[in-house]
Amino acid sequence: MSIEAIKAVSQADIRPCGRKFTLLALADFADANWSCFPKTATLASYTGQSDRAVRTHLAELEKEGFLTRFRPRREDGKLAGYRYKLQRQKLPVEAPVDGEIDQWQNLPEAETAIGETCQNQRQNSPKPAANISETSGRIFRNQRKSLPVINPHLNPQEKIASSLRSEACQQQAVSADVQSEIFIHLPTKTGDAVAITRKQVDEWSRAFPALDVEQKLRAMKSWLDANPSRRKTANGVPRFVVAWLSKDQDRSARAAPPAHSRQADKPKTIGEIFLEEAMNTGLIYD
Predict the structure, then answer these.
(1) Listed residue (88, 87, 80, 149) closest to 108, CA to CA
(2) DSSP secondary-structure letter at 269?
(3) Strand pairing partners for 195?
(4) Between 3.40.50.720, 1.10.10.1450, 1.10.10.10, 3.40.50.970, what CATH number should domain 3-95 receive?
(5) Which of 1, 76, 93, 259 might form a disulfide with 8, Cβ 3.0–4.6 angstroms?
(6) CA–CA separation, 4 vs 208, rounded Å?
(7) CA-to-CA distance for 253 and 249, rounded, in angstroms?
(8) Exposed, middle or buried: residue 69 (CB in 10 Å: 0-12, 13-18, 19+)?
(9) What is the dihedral of CA 31, 33, 37, 42, to 10 degrees?
(10) Per-residue pLDDT tens for 70-125?
């Protein structure tokens, strides 16, 4: 939170009130350099407006020169979320000291170095563990040890670029290791997909020992792909999987041959016992 930014925005003449409140929310999230990167949904929740209204206000604020924004690229080439920079010259604050460096103007140039640094650090990231939450925790602890320390004597541009590289590498390392724990995705009726992890597959394999759970999950995905109208909700997918496995387990148990016939367990009658003894002693011949 930047008190200076909040004070400057509160004194600015910005209309309508929703637009000013949106800029005030950015000031509340801003750091000492008046920059921040909250999500649109976060700003909407903060201001009590809809996502669409917030996006409209952000576009108008950028058009009027109250802020600038850009989207850095991740290692996979996809765009990350917006970074916002409040513009001091448009707000009622003191002018910057002569010779002060604009910490934002050349920041996008540092974006090209993010991919190479992340690639080098991911090669040294720890192997995934069985538990996804534990894996994520260990990765964050190890990343804090392995990430480069920001030198306080760096110029402002290098400090911000180093911070961006650290954040991007942490997110990408966790995403890659969590992805390795996922066995399959099952589609839902909303068009999304529910991730089935290796841990869940192991638990179901122990609960249904007569089945090849991995093969059954592949069959479920094929069935859901072929029957989109009968897909389940995200909360209903685990129940759907367990019901499918239970039905197949019961079917395989009924199809299995009995260990011994009932005739072998049927007790002999007294007549059968005397007849067997008589044949054994020679009193009766077959």
Answers:
(1) 80
(2) P
(3) 185
(4) 1.10.10.10
(5) 93
(6) 62
(7) 6
(8) middle
(9) 40
(10) 888 888 888 888 889 999 888 887 655 444 444 444 444 444 455 555 555 555 55
